[in-house]
Fold this protein.
Amino acid sequence: MPGKKKVCVVVGVGPGNGAALAHRFAKDGYAVALLARSSATSSKLASELPDARAFACDVSDAGSVARAFASIRDEMGEVDVVAYNAGSGVFGTLDDVTGADFEASWRVNSLGLLLVAKEVAPAMKAAKSGAIIVTGATASRRGVARTTAFAPAKAAQRSLCESLARQLGPHGIHVGLIIVDGVVDMPRTREWMKDKPDEFFIQPSGVAELASFLVRQDRSAWTFEAEARPFGESW
């Protein structure tokens, strides 16, 4: 049982940032819990990493979150670090998206973060240490035509992060937000953008390295919001 190691939970494990975060925190010596709605990616990844386990979890559902974290505590111990990477959303204009699309995006990006924070905060407060690092997006700062459902959810997520940082910081818990400004390098994004050069894309390993750095920061100089942007990105 990997209970002697500190525990990092990666919420939202896919082939991009989620997998990179899992690899990075495993390298940092954590036992890693991998959360995803489907076990297709997370189970395979868990078999490749030391002291890693996959758990099915739908972050938009309170019962699913509660069950997943109860299993993590039972099998791995209390959680020391959360890398909250769940962030799906439907892209489209006002005419394209539905009310259900809007609510689903909010549930994954914002409600899910709230539910996860409520699960891990008590033990982190007791230990007077811990970290919750959230993968955010530029959409949290501005809405464009095709982010009608996505931008409001990310804005809510950012506001929640700031509220959590102010509440939990005095208890020794570092809440940090990574603003991902650019296109993450994944098979599907390469397929969509075949004409783009390598330097156009954000490397998931770079995002994961930044998350690791934020967790390791001296608490006298904590960063709340950090940007991850390829040097060629217009901003």
Remarks:
- The chain has one domain: 2-228.
- The longest helix spans residues 99-127.
- The domain at 2-228 is CATH 3.40.50.720 (Rossmann fold).
- The beta strands are 7-11, 31-36, 52-56, 81-84, 130-137, 173-180, 183-184, 201-202, 225-228.
